[in-house]
Amino acid sequence: MTVVCIDTNLFLELYESNENPEEIFSDIGALADHLVFPDIILDEFLRNRARVLDRVADDIRKREAGEIRLPALIRENPNVAALQRAGEEYNRVAGALYNDILNMIAEPSADPVARAFTGLSRDPAVRVFHRTEELITRAHRRKLLGNPPKSTGTDTIGDELVWETLLANLAEDLILVTRDRTYRYHTAYLAQEYRERTGSSLTITDRISDALKLIGLPASPALARFEGREGEEGR
Predict the structure, then answer these.
(1) Which H or E run includes 174?
(2) Among 62, 63, 92, 214, which residue carries the largest CB count within 10 Å?
């Protein structure tokens, strides 16, 4: 059986997507029997969701209406007062939305993406692989040797640990869905290493819909738009 691993970045991108995340998670859930997750991906999602939501909240705060400066000749116009009231109401609603997002950061249960992600990771059909001290040591060694995949931070080993965990736990063909260029730029190296370590094949793609082909399902309209392939596939 071919297995599928979806990298953290795909889930985090749902926070700033125009598409309904529940529809996309429905697509992903259909792959449950094939899904595998190194537990570091679960950690990365929970750690970075707050950063993404905080950026969304800051963008809302920056869009608050400022003081309206008007020349004296129109200050007595009745529409000026209406405009000021509209600005005050806008700021009130924007502030309420800002606070709602802060609540989502503090309470993952109020966050629809986090709820769906947590439900997916707890699905009994999904395999979660746990890190060990040996795998952490291997990831550090990979970092020191400069072998891909390479985490962007000089003092982090997230990508290295994901890869070592997959190598240690899998023997099946693997579809790795990621938008992280460290995997895509080193596809040949990683495919060869995967074959040598597991005896199976590796496919690296940035599209969940490629994995859905395993079970004969097309992408939902939301997923097709999220992946930028509307018109190529649809239900």
Answers:
(1) strand 174-177
(2) 214
